[in-house]
Automatic annotation (TrEMBL):
It comes from Photobacterium andalusiense. This is Uncharacterized protein. It comes from the Bacteria.
């Protein structure tokens, strides 16, 4: 299958982009089923959420010593924007120190 043939190259490209850009946070809008398998060697820890939340998982990646907070959320299309945003922010806040919560700016 084409997806299987392209997977390793896509995973390597994603790793290279993370090395180059060195982000502090990443939001994957894929759901866990599409994320699964990517960056497995870079995951420091991962918490899966087994509920009807818009967020499937969150954790930390390590790419060449750079620690990256990440959240895996379901695709936002057709979702209540306010509830979706609150869910994603709550997950990122789980990864932050207790004194520095993230906020939405509108």
């Amino acid at each position: 299958m084409l997806c299987d043939e392209q997977f390793d190259g896509c995973n390597q490209l994603l790793q290279e982009e993370l090395r180059y850009y060195q982000p502090q946070k990443i939001l994957f809008l894929t759901g866990f089923n599409w994320f699964e398998g990517f960056l497995t060697q870079n995951i420091k820890w991962l918490t899966k959420i087994d509920s009807e939340s818009f967020v499937d998982a969150y954790g930390k990646l390590e790419i060449e010593g750079n620690i990256i907070d990440f959240v895996i959320a379901k695709h936002p299309q057709g979702k209540n924007e306010s509830i979706f945003n609150d869910s994603v922010l709550a997950s990122f806040n789980q990864l932050e120190s207790p004194n520095t919560p993230l906020k939405i700016y509108q």
